[in-house]
């Protein structure tokens, strides 16, 4: 029979008893032996297994309740989530915090206030444990326990944004677009993929196209924010874009309010209106204008960091063309060839796939003028990579790995009139499929990475660091400047 917990305080007091301990420290030898047999069967691949063990062997309740909180009477949902350690006192989240599956059929008839999500997850018992690679889950030490009420213990601005995120996800399902959902669609609360493998699909109510199973989740960056502020008691050295003396607004509302008075104006007029002077030759000139508009003093903006939003200033040519492609992080060749595009069962997603799936951009778009040095602020827009194009990017990723494994890096070495030698590679270029390509992203020619297979042409086992890029022309099409 399940142990009965009647209050949140009772649940939390029990949770504190395992802090700085592991499950192995509190379980019997017989139970440990039984669990180790199951770990031998599952490997380390069963998601949620540690949470199930905590419920059964520590809290003495039956795991597996789907629609109600784990502690039904107390109204508390248990979440075990891993931490990574960076220094003696610094921790960060290893991953997003995943909630229950999204029931596409039922969620379309719900409201936020009466949603199954809030019914189950309004009060969370967050149990943070220190993750160590290749260590048994029985030996993970619990470092923090925290009770979090989603409608009381975070700021009104965050509550409002989470509600709007939930409503956006539900609205997309109502439009028959569950198959187009992406974590990058929203800000704090996401819809992450959740399936045994990429072949698993589900029906959706408003469209015959099957959709990936997804679950509600807090983004990893938002969990990091909670860790730093709620657990470690840090005062963040970031600026906020919200005017907290006014009505509640979303991140998008706040950005629109700040920028709307300046859209269509030149840089000179913007600075004059702001009563500000800047040296135009400064490398960060346009970003400094943006910061003046946002009324922030640094590039660290709280709401954007919590939502994994990258603010990128884009400069169009006077004819509307874009020359700048968007780079992602340089990859390590030996690491890249070991990555898997997606495997939910193994909790694995290739780094490039993860960035495309979860990241959101805030584009601030300026345009050069034909006969003057002025630039005009054309528009701002939030953008995330559309799911409909993901297979084409996967093709670029797979082709790149194939070439690296075959040692086909350098295609030819051309000697210019100046005597300088240029290496042309086999990597997919911007014309490969029109969306993404691979090219160098290094500090200098000495910034290299080791190859798993030596290059066939040069017999070298190191090569200049490269990264994946989204094509300039593709980004230009996404900006939709003709809709201004």
Give the helix proportion (percent range): 25-40%
Beta-sheet strand percentage? 15-25%
Q: Sketch the major β-sheet.
A: 4 strands, mixed
How many DSSP H or I helices?
16
Determine the structural class based on helices, strands and strand pairing: alpha+beta
User: What global shape is seen?
Assistant: globular
Strands across the major sheet, in which order? 2-1-4-5
Low-confidence regions: none
Structure summary, number of beta strands: 21
Terminus-to-terminus distance = 64 Å
Radius of gyration: 25 Å
Mean pLDDT: 92
Folded structure, characterized:
This protein has 484 residues and is α+β, with helices and mostly antiparallel strands. Helices cover 30% and strands 23% of the residues. The protein contains 16 helices and 21 strands. It has helices spanning 8-16, 23-26, 29-42, 49-58, 104-107, 116-121, 156-174, 220-231, 251-259, 267-274, 285-294, 302-306, 333-336, 351-358, 390-406, 472-479; strands spanning 77-85, 91-93, 97-101, 123-130, 141-149, 189-193, 202-204, 207-211, 214-218, 309-316, 326-327, 342-343, 348-349, 360-368, 375-383, 410-415, 421-425, 436-440, 448-450, 462-464, 466-470. It has a four-stranded mixed sheet. Strands 3-9-6 form a three-stranded antiparallel sheet. It has a three-stranded mixed sheet with strand order 10-14-15. Strand 14 and strand 15 (375-383) form a beta hairpin. The protein is globular. The N and C termini lie far apart (64 Å). The model has no long low-confidence stretch (mean pLDDT 92).
């Amino acid at each position: 029979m399940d142990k009965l917990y009647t209050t949140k305080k009772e649940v939390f007091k029990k949770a504190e008893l395992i802090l700085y301990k592991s499950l192995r420290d509190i379980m019997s030898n017989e139970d440990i032996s039984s669990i180790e047999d199951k770990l031998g069967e599952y490997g380390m691949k069963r998601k949620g297994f540690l949470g199930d063990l905590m419920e059964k062997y520590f809290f003495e309740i039956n795991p597996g309740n789907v629609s109600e909180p784990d502690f039904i009477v107390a109204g508390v949902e248990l979440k075990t989530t891993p931490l990574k350690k960076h220094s003696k006192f610094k921790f960060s989240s290893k991953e997003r915090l995943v909630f229950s599956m999204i029931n596409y059929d039922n969620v379309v008839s719900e409201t936020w206030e009466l949603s199954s999500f809030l019914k189950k997850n309004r009060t969370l018992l967050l149990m943070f444990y220190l993750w160590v690679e290749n260590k048994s889950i029985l030996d993970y030490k619990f470092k923090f326990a925290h009770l979090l009420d989603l409608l009381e213990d975070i700021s009104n601005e965050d509550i409002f944004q989470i509600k709007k995120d939930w409503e956006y996800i539900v609205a997309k399902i109502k439009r028959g677009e569950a198959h187009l959902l992406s974590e990058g669609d929203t800000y704090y609360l996401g819809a992450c993929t959740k399936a045994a493998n990429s072949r698993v699909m589900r029906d959706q109510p408003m469209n015959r196209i099957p959709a990936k199973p997804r679950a509600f989740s807090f983004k990893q960056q938002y969990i990091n924010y909670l860790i730093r502020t709620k657990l470690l008691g840090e005062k963040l050295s970031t600026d906020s874009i919200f005017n907290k003396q006014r009505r509640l607004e979303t991140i998008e509302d706040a950005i629109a309010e700040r920028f709307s008075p300046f859209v269509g104006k030149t840089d000179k007029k913007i600075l004059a209106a702001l009563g500000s002077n800047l040296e135009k030759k400064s490398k960060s000139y346009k970003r400094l204008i943006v910061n003046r508009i946002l009324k922030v003093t640094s590039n660290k903006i709280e709401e954007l960091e919590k939502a994994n939003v990258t603010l990128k200033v884009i400069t169009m040519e006077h004819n509307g063309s874009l020359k700048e492609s968007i780079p992602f992080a340089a990859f390590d060749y030996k690491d890249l060839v070991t990555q898997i595009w997606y495997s939910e069962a193994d909790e694995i997603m290739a780094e490039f796939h993860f960035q495309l799936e979860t990241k959101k951009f805030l584009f601030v778009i300026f345009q050069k003028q034909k006969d003057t040095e002025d630039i005009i602020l054309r528009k701002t827009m939030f953008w995330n990579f559309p799911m409909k194009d993901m297979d084409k990017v996967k093709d670029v990723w797979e082709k790149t790995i194939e070439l690296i494994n075959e040692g086909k890096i350098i295609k030819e070495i051309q000697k210019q009139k100046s005597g300088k030698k240029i290496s042309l590679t086999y990597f997919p270029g911007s014309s490969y499929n029109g969306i993404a390509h691979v090219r160098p992203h290094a500090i200098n020619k000495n910034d290299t990475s080791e190859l798993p297979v030596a290059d066939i042409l040069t017999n070298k086992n190191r090569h200049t660091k490269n990264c994946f890029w989204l094509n300039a022309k593709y980004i230009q099409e996404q900006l939709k400047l003709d809709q201004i």
